[in-house]
Amino acid sequence: MTDIIIRPARADDIGTIHDFILALADYERLAHAVKADRATLARYLFGERPMAEVLIADHDGTAVGFALFFHNFSTFEGRPGIYLEDLFVLPQARGLGAGKALLARLAQLAIARDCARLEWSVLDWNAPAIAVYRAIGATPMDGWTVQRLDGAALAALADN
After folding, report:
1. What is the mean pLDDT of residues 93-110?
2. Which of 27, 44, 83, 133 is catalytic?
3. How far apart, in whole angstroms, are the C-alpha atoms of residue 73 and residue 90?
4. Which of 89, 86, 88, 72 is nearest to 121 (CA)?
């Protein structure tokens, strides 16, 4: 096992974060859907009111992966949770333990912040990721389907 260092992202990591997002989108076959740019990410990650946080996985002084997350809230638990929006490790760094180290650090943050749970979504075809998630004890939320409202439909509902 090689040494992986997990650290909070800094504002000067914005280019690396953007590059990771682009690489993740390419892996997920969704490169056409990326609208985020460095300035927008900097505003929402490091601006006056940050909306999300990022952890960076470093190996030998090089960023090899990231996790972007934010807090949600469980009304049933009456406590916050952490929602992992993105987890990505560069293909050449897979197998070093960076993904598991990022997940472990998120679990530590969840416990330290009195969160009831850590949740995320995974594409149903991503068998390698699903295998990792099962190995660490994650369970699928059968019976639940993600819903999304965006673009014109979001605007139309807001105008209603």
Report:
1. 96
2. 133
3. 31
4. 86
Q: How far apart are CA 30 and CA 32, in angstroms?
A: 5
Helix (H) / strand (E) containing 84: strand 79-89
Could you tell me how far CA 61 lies from the centroid of its own chain? 21
Instruction: Kindly report the backbone phi and psi dihedral angles of residue 42, in degrees, each rounded to the nearest multiple of 5, phi listed first.
Output: -60, -40
Q: Tokens 């969840």 identify what position?
A: 110
Cβ(131)–Cβ(94) below 8 Å: no
* Tokens coding 120: 């995320």
CA-to-CA separations, 39 to 43, 45, 71, 150, in angstroms, rounded:
6, 10, 22, 21
N-terminal to C-terminal alpha carbon distance within the chain: 56
Tell me how crowded residue 54 is: count the other CB atoms within 10 A of its CB.
23
For 157, how many CA atoms within 13 A lie in the half-sphere containing its CB? 6
How far is 98 from 106, CA to CA, in rounded Å? 12
pTM above 0.85, yes or no: yes
133 is catalytic: yes
**Average pLDDT of 70-95?**
96
